[in-house]
Amino acid sequence: AVLTVSAVRVSRTLLVCTSPAMTSHVKGTVFVTANDGYTSGSNYSSSRVIAQSPFGYVSEIDAIDASPLFGSESGGTEVSVRLASSVSSFSKPMCKLGMSSSVLAVARVMNNSGVIVCRTPAALPSIVEIYVSPNGVDFVQLSGLSFIYVPKPSVTSIVPPLVTNLTTAVTVVGSNLHQAGLRCGFGKVVTTAILI
To answer: What is the tens place of the pLDDT at every residue in 171-186?
Structure first.
């Protein structure tokens, strides 16, 4: 059966059609027809199709989890969002952090699985909702998931400033060093930091 809806002509180059509700993932074709595309006897006629384009319909987007759920106000944190279904039908995956955000987070699909990775934009320290879009237009809030923007860490001093083979610990003094997973790097060697 062919579902038809009325088109609203905005201009000579733009029509707006309201998509009908569907209950599952669907791939198909959108048709634009003249004179409703029907001939006598209410039989659908493809000969009246004046334009067509592929489309896909994605049902509900549910998240299983996301990680990490916090990052620097400077942005650049890569948040992996695991969805309950495959994202292979997403035509233009996008993320948005916070409803009022006009800055979209860059998203990419991981190996055609149910995981998309969103790189956070810069924002003031706050707690914001995570939204995902399969098409770059329609955004769905991921229930129960928020991202915390924390103040950027800064270092004011390192004691001792010169390390030798006898040095057993280096103390880093600064602000906003409360983030989990902080590390210290010494050349190519990275060690775990302990918050005191």
So the answer is: 999 888 866 667 888 8
Handedness of CA 154, 159, 163, 166 (dihedral sign): negative
Q: What single-letter DSSP state applies at residue 59?
A: -
Amino acid sitting at position 56: G
pTM of the model: 0.65
Instruction: Compute the distance between CA of residue 163 and CA of residue 159 in angstroms, rounded to an integer.
Output: 9
Q: Indicate the pLDDT class of residue 194, thresholds 50, 70 and 90.
A: confident
Residue 52 to residue 162: CA distance in whole angstroms: 69
Q: How far is the C-alpha of 196 from the C-alpha of 187, rounded, in Å?
A: 23
Contacting residues for 62 by C-beta, under 8 A, at least 6 apart: 83, 84, 85, 142, 143
Closest CA to 17 of 27, 5, 34, 26: 5
For the record, the structure tokens of 10 come out as 């905005």
Torsion of CA 173, 178, 180, 185, to 10 degrees: -10
Q: Name the β-bridge partners of 32.
A: 51
